[in-house]
């Protein structure tokens, strides 16, 4: 563990706020290291057009307004539980093959949780009747 003390029980109400925050921060640190390692491995494959897409399955509450973890119904769930990480790394070859630039992928508005589905389909060139190019960060969709 990098950050200590940590909360090591499912009875989170028995943990200090510092221990709860540290436990969460350790998970983020581990995830960051894992993603960095995967990117390094993909980047070393010079002859492969590679993309790494990371999407968190849920947000996390650490006691804000009495909410913990991630199980609140959507109607009352705090922002921390509803907004998730959506991280994309692409190789130079992937970007060139699809004529992508950071400016064409990064947009000013925030993206709804629907973006990962449509962007993953777009990354692999898949289409269906439910695919929406306006939610695909890899498309050059213009409204």
Highlighted features:
two-stranded antiparallel sheet; Alkaline Phosphatase, subunit A; 143 residues; single chain; 35% helix; alpha+beta; 5 helices
Tell me about this structure:
With 143 residues, the chain is an alpha+beta fold. It has a single domain, classed as Alkaline Phosphatase, subunit A (3-Layer(aba) Sandwich), CATH 3.40.720.10. The chain has 5 helices and 4 strands; from the N terminus they run αβββαβααα. The chain is flat, with a radius of gyration of 18 Å. The chain starts with 16 loop residues before the first helix and ends in a 20-residue tail after the last helix.
What's a quick, concise take on this entry?
Helix content is 35%, strand content 10%. The protein is an alpha+beta fold. It has a single domain (12-135), classed as Alkaline Phosphatase, subunit A.
């Amino acid at each position: 563990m990098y950050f200590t003390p940590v909360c090591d029980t499912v009875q989170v109400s028995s943990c200090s706020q510092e221990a709860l925050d540290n436990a969460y921060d350790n998970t983020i640190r581990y995830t960051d290291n894992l993603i960095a390692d995967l990117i390094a491995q993909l980047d070393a494959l010079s002859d492969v057009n590679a993309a790494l897409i990371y999407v968190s399955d849920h947000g996390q509450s650490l006691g804000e307004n009495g909410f913990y973890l991630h199980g609140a119904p959507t109607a009352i769930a705090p922002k921390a539980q509803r907004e998730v990480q959506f991280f994309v790394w692409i190789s130079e070859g992937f970007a060139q093959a699809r004529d992508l630039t950071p400016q064409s992928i990064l947009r000013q508005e925030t993206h709804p949780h629907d973006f990962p589905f449509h962007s993953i389909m777009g990354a692999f060139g898949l289409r269906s009747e439910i695919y929406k190019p306006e939610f695909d960060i890899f498309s050059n969709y213009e409204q």
